[in-house]
Amino acid sequence: MNAITTHHQFLRSGGDATLPRLLKPSPLCRPSFAVRMSLREDAPSLAVVGVTGAVGQEFLSVLSDRSFPYRSIKMLASKRSAGKRITFEGNEYVVEELMPESFNGVDIALFSAGGSISKQFGPIAVDSGSIVVDNSSAFRMDEKVPLVIPEVNPEAMAHIKLGSGKGALIANPNCSTIICLMAATPLHRRAKVLRMVVSTYQAASGAGAAAMEELEQQTREVLEGKQPTCNIFKQQYAFNLFSHNAPVLSNGYNEEEMKLVKETRKIWNDMNVKVTATCIRVPVMRAHAESVNLQFEMPIDEDTARDILKNAPGVVVIDDRAANHFPTPLEVSNKDDVAVGRIRSDVSQDGNYGLDIFVCGDQIRKGAALNAVQIAEMLL
Amino acid sequence: MNAITTHHQFLRSGGDATLPRLLKPSPLCRPSFAVRMSLREDAPSLAVVGVTGAVGQEFLSVLSDRSFPYRSIKMLASKRSAGKRITFEGNEYVVEELMPESFNGVDIALFSAGGSISKQFGPIAVDSGSIVVDNSSAFRMDEKVPLVIPEVNPEAMAHIKLGSGKGALIANPNCSTIICLMAATPLHRRAKVLRMVVSTYQAASGAGAAAMEELEQQTREVLEGKQPTCNIFKQQYAFNLFSHNAPVLSNGYNEEEMKLVKETRKIWNDMNVKVTATCIRVPVMRAHAESVNLQFEMPIDEDTARDILKNAPGVVVIDDRAANHFPTPLEVSNKDDVAVGRIRSDVSQDGNYGLDIFVCGDQIRKGAALNAVQIAEMLL
Q: What positions does UniProt annotate as the active site of this protein (chains A, B) (predicted)?
C-alpha cells in the first residue's frame, strides 16, 4: 500500500466533530451514517452509552457500516453532553443524559463510558431486561459474565437469548487482548500455545479522543520549539514512548498487562496458558501493534502457520519478505481485519515449537466497537 | 523528570548544522567542542572517518566531553563533504577526502561511514599501523576481530596494544545489541541467561541524520494535511511504526534481528544462549527502547536483579512503580547511561527463573559513538 493511501486512511474516522483534526474524514473517507434500510419495526431497540466518545462514535459507524437492524436507537451520554444533536442514518437524534430509566424498553445496550459508569448502570440495564455489551473492564473477570471475541469463543454467550425478556451482561475484552488473540487463537487451536510473550506498541486512542488530541497538539508544539502540553499523560508523548499509563500492581505488572494475562486464560478457557506482557504507549493515533512470541505444545512450522492465518476469519496476512512489507498501524486504521505478518519459526526454540509474529489492529474498531457490535449481531 | 527538561533534552544534540532542526542545540545544551586540555604532544593521533554524519559528529562530542587526549585529529569524509570546515575544541579543521594515504601516522581511527567504506579502508588503515574502531557491521562476526562493549567484555581486546606499531581492527556492536546487553549482562553473570526474547522500539537515528530529517518533515506534512514525503523509508513513518527496514533473510528474520542473536553469542562467548528478536522502527528521534524477556538457569528474584542493575557500570535504574515512572527514549537522549526499569519477575515462568525488563539507551551515543570512544580509551 503506498504512502498516499495510508495517509488518507490515517485521516479517516468515525466522523465525530469532537475528534482530533488528524482524524477528521478525508475526501476518501467512506460516507459515515449514510441512509440505510436498517431501521425496521421487527428489529431490536438499541442504546449507545457514551455515544459522544471515540468508541461511542465508532459504535455508530460500525452499526451503520454493517446495516445493523434496529427499531429505535437511544443516544446516551453524561449530563455534559446531553442536548447535543447527532445525525445518524438520515435521522437527527438528541443526546440524552444517562439515567436509571434510560433502559426501559431497550433490548441491546452498547456501553463504552468507562468502568464506573458500567458498574453503576450495567446492572440497572440488565434489571430492565436489556442485554448489555460492555466495553469496560468492569465485568470482564466476573465468572458469570461471558468475555467474548466472536471469532474465538462465541460458545461462551450461547445461553444468552434476545427476546427472552431476560437481561444479561456480555463483556468486550480489552483491545490488546482482542488483537493478540485474533492471531494467536487459530495457531493455538492447531498446536496449543503453552506460553506467550507479548510486547505492545499501543496507540493514543486507547486513552480516548482527548489523548489523540494531546498527541497531535504536543507534536505541533515540539515542532514549533515550544514546551509540550501534558494534560492526559504526565510526560511528553510526541516523538517519545512510555510504559502504559495504567496503574502498576504489586507484582510490577500494570493493569493493561495483567488484562492480557487473565483475559487470555478466560477466553481460551485454559487456566494453564502462560502469558507475560510489556505494554508500551507509542506516538501512533488509533491502531495497536503487538510483537508476539509463541511456544507450542505441538510442532507447527511457519508455512502451516501462515496458511492457518490466511484462512482465519477477521485476519489478513501481510507478510511480504522480499518487499519488506508487513503490517503497520496506519495500514489497519479504520479496517475491520487484524493484520498479521513477520510469521517465522523462532530461532530461539528447537524444532518447530516456537513462532514469532507481528500483529496490528485498529484499537477503536476491532479492539472495541466492531467486536462489541459483532457480539450484538450474534444475538440477532 | 518533567516535560520541559525532557523537551530540552530532546532538542540537545552533537551540534552539527546538518542535523534536523529538532536536534539543534538548545539553550540548555552542553557546550559542544569547548576548548579543552586534551590536545597533547604525548597523546595518540586520531582520525574520524565519516565525520560529517550523525555518529561522526557524536564522535567529536564524546571525545570533547571525555577530554580524550590527542596529538592531532584528522576529519575524514567522502569527496562530497571534503572542504567543509569544522571547529573542534577551539581549532578549525578542514574535512579531508578519505584516501588510502589518509591513515599515515594515525594511531587510532574511529570509523562510522557504512560497511562498504569500512571493508575498503579498514584493512588499509590497519596496514598503516592504525587501530581501527569500526562502528559498521563489516567485521563484527569476523572471529579474528574483537566485538567489544567495554563494560561487558573488555578482555576480548586485551591483546591489542597502542604504540606497538601493529594495526588492528576492533568492532563496535550494533546499537540494539549494546543497549540490550548493558542491562542483560549483569543479570547473566549472576544467574546465566538461557533464553532472551527481545522486541525493539528503534529510533530514526539508527538510519542516519537524513532519516531523522524525514521523520520531522513527514510529521510536519501530515499535520498540514499533506502527503508525507517518503525518501529514506518507503512508507509513512510519522504517527506510524514498521518492521525494521533491514533486509529480511531466508529464515524470516531481518538483519537487525540476527545481529542481536549472533552478536550476543559472540560478546558473551556463549554459543548456547538462545535469542529471538523482533525489531520495529518507531517515530522517535535518537534513543532506542527494548522490551526484554529473560529466562535464567539459576533463580534470581526481582529485588536482587534491581540491586545488581543499580550497581552496574553505565546503567541507571528508573523503576518507580508508584509514580509510574520508567525509562523513556527522551529521558536517555544525549545521556551516556542506559536506563533500565519495569524490572519484575515474569509471571509466565515458575519460581524466579524469569524476568521482564524495559531498557532505553541513546542510539547515537552509547549505541554507537560513546561505546567506540570507550573502546579507544581502553587503548590508552
A: 175 (acyl-thioester intermediate), 288 (proton acceptor)
Q: What is the dihedral of CA A285, A287, A293, A299, to 10 degrees?
A: -170
Q: Is B239 on the interface with A (CB under 8 A)?
A: yes
Provide φ and ψ at B79, rounded to 5°: -55, -40
Grid cell of A195 as nine digits: 506460553
* Known active-site residue B175: yes
**Strand (E) or helix (H) holding A340:** strand A338-345
Q: Which of B266, B271, B274, B244 is nearest to B363 (CA)?
A: B244
Residue B320 in contact with partner chain A when CB distance is under 8 A = no
Cα B179 from chain centre: 7
Rounded to two decimals, the pTM is: 0.91
Q: Which residues pair with B325 in a beta bridge?
A: B320
> Is B219 in contact with A219 (Cβ distance < 8 A)?
yes
Rounded to 5°, the CA angle A141-A14-A83 comes to 85
What was the ipTM of the complex prediction? 0.91
Taking contacts as CB-CB distances below 8 angstroms, the residues of chain A near B242 are: 326, 328
Per annotation, catalytic residue among B180, B244, B279, B288: B288
Residues on chain B touching A345 (C-beta within 8 angstroms)? 251-252
Which of B214, B224, B276 has the highest number of chain A CBs within 10 A, making it the mutation to test binding with A? Answer: B276
- Find the CB nearest B201 among A201, A293, A322: A201
Cell numbers linked to A308: 492457518
Per-residue pLDDT of chain A (380 residues; tens, 9 = 90+): 333 333 333 333 333 334 444 444 333 333 345 555 577 888 999 999 999 998 999 999 999 999 999 999 999 999 999 999 999 999 999 999 999 999 999 999 999 999 999 999 999 999 999 999 999 999 999 999 999 999 999 999 999 999 898 999 999 999 999 999 999 999 999 999 999 999 999 999 999 999 999 999 999 999 999 999 999 999 999 999 999 999 999 999 999 999 999 999 999 999 999 999 999 999 999 999 999 999 999 999 999 999 999 999 999 999 999 999 999 999 999 999 999 999 999 999 999 999 999 999 999 999 999 999 999 999 99
Closest CA to B2 of B341, B328, B339: B328
